[in-house]
Amino acid sequence: MHIFIIRRLLQLIPVLLGVTLVAFLIIQLVPGDAAQVMAGEAASEAQLEQMRENLG
User: Cβ distance 7 to 16 under 8 Å?
Assistant: First the structure.
């Protein structure tokens, strides 16, 4: 039973790395501006700049 748990924990490492990589790539490849999406379509340019600065 201990070997099964250890094996499953070791299999978890590449799965977590793979899921993290896929999520990061999807976020980077999706077109658009995160600040625009979060602020909404009615946001002014000043609000967008402030949002971009806050997001980094």
Answer: no
Contact 51, 43 (CB under 8 A): yes
Domain that holds residue 17: 2-55
Reading the block at residue 28, the tokens are 């980077």
Alpha-carbon gap, residue 24 to 52, rounded angstroms? 19
pTM of the model: 0.59
- What is the reported pLDDT for 36? 86
Q: Provide the domain count of the chain.
A: 1
**Which distant-in-sequence residues (6+ apart) come within 8 Å of 34 by Cβ?**
55
Q: Which residues of the chain have pLDDT under 50?
A: none
